[in-house]
Amino acid sequence: SDAQIIATLLMSLPPAYDSLIVALDSHAEKDNLDFVIGRLLNEETRQESEFSAAYPETSALTVRVCDKSRITCFKCRKQGHYQFECPE
Fold it and tell me: Does residue 3 have a pLDDT over 80?
């Protein structure tokens, strides 16, 4: 059931989410899976932005994944890869 999934999910979270767990426990929609997932995603975004603001030098070192579907290879002119990855 949703309540069991929510309980398992919340028990597996790291200590950084303790305040959110307490807040969710007292909320009327605490057994609504969509509501809990939405709150967790919001909390994750909030924590990431706080971390980036507190440690801007580490943000420069993070690897960003890009969508290669729009990338055009300069060697074969096909889309989906860079020149150094070209199979030709």
Answer: yes
Domain boundaries, given as residue ranges, for the chain: 2-54, 63-88
Q: How far is Cα 53 from Cα 55, in angstroms, rounded to an integer?
A: 6
Whole-number mean pLDDT of the chain? 83
The 3-class secondary structure across the chain, one letter per residue, is CHHHHHHHHHHCCCHHHHHHHHHHHCCCCCCCHHHHHHHHHHHHHHHHHHHHHHCHHHHCCCCCCCCHHHCECCCCCCECCCHHHCCC
